[in-house]
Amino acid sequence: MRFIIIILLLISASIFATESASEYYLKDIASNFNLSAVSEQCDSEFITYSNKYDKVIFKKFSRKVYFNNTLYWLNDAFYPSKSNGWFVSEQDYTKMLMPLFVESSSTNKIEDFVVFIDPGHGGSDPGAFYSSATNLKESEIVFNISTNLARLLKDSGVQVFMSRTNDQFVTLTDRTKMANGVKSSVFISVHVNAAFGTSACGFETYTLPLGHSFSTSGNSKPRLYLGNNNDIFNSLLGYSIHNALLNDFPNQYDRGVKHARYEVLKNINCPAILVECGFISNKAERKLLADTEYQRLISKSIFRGTTNYIQSVVAVGDYILDNNIETIVYVEPVITNNLCILSNDLQCVEISSKLTFSEDCESSAGEQF
């Protein structure tokens, strides 16, 4: 009987998702934010619009959108209608794209924000590691990045808390409990990546998926889970930090702002992201990640992205109120997997500085659009 009830709930959730799905047309987005069409090469594959602040490139029949040269993954593909032109789903527009278009404000008081930094792993859990004479471990790399980030934020007047201040093991549940306990305004979980092969590379940043939606990998089924009250600001935070990293490392490979139901993201009460700062399994990136100066530069980029987010929050909040946008969607989630298997198409990149890649980076598996 319990199994039948669960099946009925899943069916009703599927019906709800279908009935509530609606379209938001590109012409309306352009009108809302004074965007004009841009004629570029490869127009058969992409549609480009811009205004004096932003440039957005939609890849046709794809979940990929390039916002100010930053890859952002939507939940649904950009698709044409029979009569009203190209469109994105309403929730993709409202919860993901809209906050990126709103012009930021410089009126926010940075000292009013509480930033909780979560250095991944620690203690008996080293995270990803590379067996060598240096015994390089993810837990040590991300701790160094996180402490540098904490120092920058504190110096700017932000209140800062950390899930760990030494090499200790902290459960995923305790990390979110601590952040919720201090009423964090922002939660940033810092990690470095690893793959079975040695060629995968690049930055990627994660936010929680929207309700009734897939993770970016497309490998998990939509859950009976209605998202998060912070969906809009998760999107803004993820973009702000990922964009800052790419601006500071313009030749690094962009894996995009993605979406996964990681434990620390789905149980947090404030806008939250998980950022992957490179691949320890890639020889060139491993060399960079072991460099204390490179770690400092990564911290500086995340700091800049965080302050960019803080300067945008009030303006986005005002836009939500002025346009009567609904944000309350949260219900108690059912038990879900907290790890998604991720795979992506990669290309060869190089960092054009003294910190330089010496080998190609690519992937053997393709992302499902």
Describe the structure.
- By secondary structure, the protein is α/β, with parallel strands linked by helices.
- It has two domains: 23-93, Copper amine oxidase-like, N-terminal domain (Copper Amine Oxidase, Chain A, domain 1, 2-Layer Sandwich); 110-322, Aminopeptidase (3-Layer(aba) Sandwich).
- It contains nine helices and 16 strands.
- The protein has a six-stranded mixed sheet. Strands 2-3-4-5-6 form a five-stranded antiparallel sheet.
- Mean pLDDT is 81; it is low at 1-21 and 330-369.
For the structure shown, list the relevant keywords:
alpha/beta, 5-stranded antiparallel beta sheet, 2 domains, 16 strands, disordered C terminus, Aminopeptidase, 369 residues, disordered N terminus, 9 helices, Copper Amine Oxidase, Chain A, domain 1
Per-chain topology:
Blueprint: H1 2-20, E1 23-25, H2 26-32, E2 36-38, E3 46-50, E4 55-59, E5 64-67, E6 70-73, E7 79-80, E8 86-89, H3 90-101, E9 114-119, E10 129-130, E11 136-137, H4 138-155, E12 159-162, H5 172-181, E13 186-193, E14 203-207, H6 231-248, E15 254-259, H7 263-266, E16 272-279, H8 283-289, H9 292-322
